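Notes from hallway chat w/ T.B., transcribed later so I don't forget. T.B. wanted the structure written out for a chain they're using in a teaching module, and asked if we could keep both sequence and C-alpha cells in one place. Agreed to drop them here.
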Amino acid sequence: MSDSASIIAASHWLDYLSAQQPRMLARLRDWVERESPTTAKAALDSFGREVAAAFAAAGAEVREHAGPEAGNTLEFTAWPQQRRPEGDLLVLGHLDTVYPLGTLARQPFRVEAERAYGPGVLDMKAGLVGALFALEALAALGASPRRRLRFLFTADEEMGSRSSRAQIEAAAREAAVVLVLEPGAGPAGKLKTARKGIAGFRLRARGRAAHAGVDFEAGASAILALARAVVELAGWSDPARGITVNPGVIRGGTRANVVAAEAELELELRAFRRPDLERLARRLAALRPADARVEFSLAGGINRPPLERTAAIAAAFAQAQAWGRELGLELEECATGGGSDGNFTAALGVPTLDGLGAAGEGAHSPGEYICLASWPRRTALLGLLFARL
C-alpha cells in the first residue's frame, strides 16, 4: 500500500466517518427523495446531475455518457496520477431504482429505531452516498490511494444493464480489482462472493385455431402445448445445485370459445455455474411440443453470467475481512441468487468484491431499509479499500 495510506490507522477512518454520519444521512435523504426509476429518463438524468456535482466537489473528474434507452451513465476518475500498469480500482454502482415515480408519496424517507427507510435507500442510494464519503475521507485524512480510482454509475442495472454492459466490460478490462456498491446481504451485511447467472427467454407457441364447440378436434391449442411444457420445465429446477427454472409469465388465446392459436411464455433460468446455465439453455432450445401440430419458437439467452467464487475473489475477500477487523467489523461472505453488474466483471476474470454498500433488508419492497449503526464502519471499510487495494 502507499505510504500515506499505511500510516493512517483504521480508527482514524472510523472516527472521521462516524462524525460525518449526520451529513451522510442528510445526503441520503436528498438522494432518496430524488426518485430515479429506470423507466423515467428525465428523472434519472436529473438525479445523475446531482450525483455528478457531488463527486466533482469531492475532487473527481466527471464524464457523462449518453444512454440511448435509459438514463446517462456517469464516469468519475480520481487520483489519475496513480494509474498503474496492472489496472485501476473500478467501483460500480447504479443510479436507477425499481420504484415508479410517485412511490415517495406512499413510501416516504424516514428514520426509525436506527433504520433509514425509503424507496431505493438500500438498493442502492446508500451505496452511492458511502462511495462519495469514502472518497471525501481520502482527501480529508491525507491518504493517497495505490491506484487510480474509477467510478462507473449506470442507469439501467435494474432492467438488465442492456445499454451499459459494454461500458462496464470495457472498464473492467482496465481494472485490477472491482468493488460493487450493491447492499450487503441481510442485517449482517455479508459480502457477496458468488452470484447466480441469469438467462431470460420467451417461448412462443403457434397452433391452429378452431371453434371450441363445433370443430374442437380440428384445433391445436398453443395454450395447452405451453402448459405441458411448463410442467416439464418446472422439473428442471434443482435447488440443491442452485439451479432454478421459473415460468414467470404466460399469456395467449383470444376467447374462451376459440381453441388458442397462439400463446407465449416468459421464463427465467438461474444457476451458480456457467456450464449449468448453458446446459439449461441448450435443453430449452431442444424442447418440442407434445402436439406435433404446434410449433415452438424461442428468443433470448444468457443476460448475466454467474459471478463464480475464484481464488482471486476469495483472496480479495480475505483482505477485506482483515481490514474490516481493524474497524471492529466482522465480515462474512455468502452466495446469492440475485445478479448485479459484478457478474459481468467477474466473468472477465477480474477479482470482484460485491455487497460493499449498506447493510439492511427489504430491497425492492415497501419495507426497504438500511442499518444506520453499521453504516459508518462499512463506509470506513470502503475508504480503506480505496486507499489500500
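Follow-up for T.B.: The chain has twelve helices and 18 strands. Might be a good example for the class.
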